[in-house]
Design a protein that fits this description.
Keywords: Aminopeptidase, Hydrolase, Metal-binding, Metalloprotease, Protease, Zinc
Radius of gyration: 28 Å
Family: Belongs to the peptidase M1 family.
CATH class of the largest domain: Mainly Beta
Pfam families: DUF3458, DUF3458_C, Peptidase_M1, Peptidase_M1_N
GO molecular function, one term: metallopeptidase activity
Number of helices: 26
Bound molecules: (3S)-3-amino-4-(1H-indol-3-yl)butanoic acid, zinc ion
Shape: globular
Largest sheet: 8 strands, mixed
Protein name: Aminopeptidase N
Distance between the termini: 16 Å
CATH architecture of the largest domain: Sandwich
Amino acid sequence: AETRLLDDYRPWPFRIAETRLDVTLAPRGTVVRSEIALERSGPGPLVMDGGAGLRTRAVTIDGRPVDPAHLTIAAESLTVAEAALPDRPFAFAAEVEIDPADNTALEGLYLSGGMFCTQCEAEGFRHITWYPDRPDVMAPFRVVVRSDLPVLLSNGNPVAQGRGWAEWHDPWPKPAYLFALVAGDLRALADRFTTMSGREVALNIWVRPGDLDRAGFAMQALKASMVWDEQAYGREYDLDVFNIVAVDDFNMGAMENKGLNIFNSKLVLASPDTATDADYERIESVIAHEYFHNWTGNRITCRDWFQLCLKEGLTVYRDQQFTSDLRSAAVKRIEDVVALRARQFREDAGPLAHPPRPDRYEEINNFYTATVYEKGAEVIGMLRRLVGEDGWRAGMELYFTRHDGQACTIEDWLRVFQDATGRDLAQFKRWYTDAGTPRLTMAEDWDEDAGRLTLRFAQTTAPTPGQPDKPPRVIPIALGLISPNGDEVLPTQMLEMTAAAQEFSFDNLGARPVVSLLRGFSAPVTVERTMSAADRALLLAHDSDPFARWQAGHDLALEALVAAAQGGDPDPAFSRALAGVLGDGTLDPAFVALVLRLPSEDEIAAGITARGAIPDPDRIHEARESLAETIARDHQPALAALYERMEPQGPYSPDAGPAGQRSLRLAALGLLSRLDGGERAQALWDAAPDMTQRMGALAALVRLDRAGTALAQMESQFADNRLVMDKFFTIQPIAAAPARAVAIARSLAARPDFDWKNPNRFRALIGAVTANPAAFHAADGSGYDFVAEWLMRLDPANPQTAARMMTAFETWPRHDATRRKAARDALERIAAMPLLSVNSAEMVRRILA
Ligand code: HT7
Ligand code: ZN
C-alpha cells in the first residue's frame, strides 16, 4: 500500500461554498446525489476521493455531463481535467448508488439492526460519494434524507420535514469526516439546555424503543459537560439541537459528528442492574469527550491526519479534567496513569512505537492509538505545567480566537503558546515528533555537614522504529521532600530538566529527606532510582501528593512481584505496609482500592524486561496469585471488616463516593475469596444488589471455577441484553485460570450468540483472551493461534477492528524463543492471507519488522 508522508502535504486547489446532499435510503441501492459549489484557489484538475463501492450514475459540471475524454474514474479517485473546468465558481454534481446492507466494515453508510447510520472519520465519506475527503476542506452542508423510517437525522439544525423526508442545514463549515446521517425507528430522551449567552438548545438521545429507560445517565452527563465547557473554557454550544444516537454495531467508542454524535450503545445505555460503576464513569467521560470535540476538533479541526493528536490529545486532556473535577482528582490521575502505562508505555516500548504526531502511515485507522490519544493528553498536561496557569489560560483563549473555523497543525498549536507566553517551545516540540518513553534516572548525594541534597538526573530514550537517536527533551519534574518522620520539608517544586544530565541541589536540610519524585506524574517517563523499601513505605504512609503516595506502594508491590516471578523470595514489605493503609479511616476508599490493586501481569513482564531478563508469563501469574493470597492471609480481619463496612447504603448511585466504596469492597472480596473458597462471592452474587457487585462476585467465582450456576442465571436473565451478554463472554476467559481460558473461549465462540461481526461481541470474547496474559502467551502457542484464527476470519469483514486487535501481539519480542516462534508463526499466517486488508497488512508488517 501507498505510504503517506507528512511532508507531502499540499492544499486542495478549490474552496467549497456549500455541499448539498440528497440521500434516498435503501439497504441496497441507496442513491446519493451530491452538488458541490466550488471555486478555484490554485492550479490543477479536480480530484475527488471515492471507494470501490460507489456505482457512479452521473457526473456533471454546472448541470452538464462531463465529457468522458475529461473524466477519469479510477479505483479510489475521480478526476475532471482542468480543461473541463470553468474559470468562475461552478457546481460539481454526482449521482452514485451504494449498498449499506453489505457494509460490514462499518465505515461510510451502513445498517445496524435495521437502522441506517454513518461513520466517516477518518476516511469513510469516500464510501458514500465522490468528495475531497480530507479534513482541511471544510464546507457548510445542506442534506435531504429520504426514507420510510420514522426518524431521519443529519448534522446541524432541522430545516423542514415531510412524509418520508427531512432536510438539515449545518451552517458551520466542516470537513467530510464530521458528516453524519441516521435513519431508524428510534425514540428520544429529550431535554433542554440554555447556554451562557441564552441560546436554547434541544437535547435528544436517540435509542431503540426498549432502551429509553437506560439513557438518563447519558443525558445527565451531557448537560454536565455543557456546563463544564462554559465554566472551564468559556465555550458554549453553537446549534439549536444536539443529537446523540446509540448504535449497536460500531467500530470504536463514539464519534463527534457536528450536532449529531453517534455512540456505541455501550457508551450510552446504563441502569444499575445492567451497567457497572466503571461503565457509568466511562459513559460520563466519553459523552464529555465527544461534546468537547465541538470546539477542539470541529470548530478547530486538523489540517491532515498526521495532526490527529491536535484534536484527540487536547480533547482527552479536557475530558480527564472534567472527570477529575466531577469525581476525585487524585483517583482519576492514578487511573489515567495506570491506563497510560498499560497501553501507551507498552506501545512505546515495542515495534509499533510512533510519535504523537507521526510523519508517515499507510492506513490512518491504525493510528488511533494510545500514543496519539493518551500520550497526546500527557503532552498537553506538561505544556500546562511549563507555561503555568496564566500562560495556559491565555494560550487556550488565543487558540480559540485565532483558529476558529480553521484546519490546523501542531505548529499552529505551539505558536499560540509561544505568542501568548513568549516562551520558546522548540525543544518541547520533540514530545510531538519523537517516539519512545524517556527513562529518567536519579541518583542522590547527601552532604550531612552542609545539610545539602544534590539530585543527579539523567535522561535517555531507547531507539524506536525509524528514530535511532533521541535528543534530550524538556521534562517537568515535580518533586517534594519528606523528612524521616513523615513531615513535608519542601513542598512541590517544578524542576525543568532540559539536558541529557542535570543536577539540582537543596540546602538547609536538617536531616536527609526522602524524595517524593514525579509528583502528580508530571511527565510521561519511567523513573529509575535506588530506594529502600523503608523509604517507599514512608512515602506510602506520609506523602502529601496522592499520586506519589500511591506510586510508592505500587513500586513496593512491583519490586516484590518482579523478584518473585524470577524465582526470588517475595519481599514482605508491601504487605506489611498495607496495614497502615487499611487501618487509615481517613483515606478515600477508592484510593485504598487502587493501592490494593496489584500491578498487572503485563506490567510485571515489562518490569522484568526492563531489568534485562526474559519474563515467564506462567511464573508471573503464579507470583501475582501468591502475593494476593499472602495479603489476604496477612490482613484477613481488616479486609473482612472493610468488606462489611464498604457496602453503600441506600439506592444505587454511580457517584464517586459510593462507587469508591464498592471498589474497595470488591477489592477486599477478591482477596478474601482466596481464603473462603468463594463463600462471600457466592452470597454477594445471590443478593445481587447491582451489576457492579454482581460482576465483582462473578469474577471471583470464575477464578475459583465455581461460577456454573451464576453464569447460567446470568444467561437466562439477560439473554436479550447484548451489553450484559458481552460481559458474560468477557468474564470467563479473562478471569479463568490461564490453563483453561483458551478452551473456554473456544467453546464460547461456538455458541450461536457469538455474533462475531458485531465489534462489541468480538472484542468481548477475543479481546478477553488477549487480556489474560498467561493464556494468550501460553508456551504451546494455543493463545496466539486462537486469536490469529479469529483475526483472519474478521479481517475480510471488518479490517479496522481486526487490525486494532492485532496490537495484542506487540509484546512478542520480549518473550523466550519458543513463544517468539509461536507468535511469529501466527503473525506470518495472517500476513500470508490472500486479500489481507491494508489495515492488517500494515500492522503485521510493523509488528514483525
Ligand atoms: N474521533 C473519533 C475517532 C474515530 C472513530 C470513532 C468511531 C468509529 C470509527 C472511528 N474512527 C476514528 C472518536 C473520538 O476520538 O472521539
Ligand atoms: Zn476524540
